[in-house]
Amino acid sequence: MRNIEVWPKLSGLAILAGVSLAVMIDWNSALARYSSPLFASWTAHGVGAAASALVLAAARRGAPAASIDRRGPLWERLGGIPGALTVLLAAITVNGPLGLPGTIALLLVGQVGFGIATDGFGWFGLQRRRPTFCLLASLALVLSGAALVIGGSA
Asked: Largest Cα–Cα distance in the chain?
């Protein structure tokens, strides 16, 4: 399948993931207001672990054990660490002067910037891709947009 054929489907999934991230951050930040950012992070990851266990159990029911590949570096299994930091730090910033829009805008800056660096250096086993002018310009525009979101809400 050519890249152009899957682009609309993948774009929709990426947008849905972004909406899910914003909802997650909002809900976890609300919990942190009534408890603490650390408690909100633990709760979110406990619920996420339980949901993942259910999905994994359902997926394994139909798949032979040999189809689950356990090879690969250990760091690939540690994705929960940055996830926990995301929940913890976002719960702090959403409940501060940045609010949800400012937090999401700066999260996007961090994600795009880190994504460009990750591709550029080939980190985490990704294929190295030289940053193009369009990618760097998009980072500048996202940063400018974040400044507008934050400045406009002050």
From this structure: 55
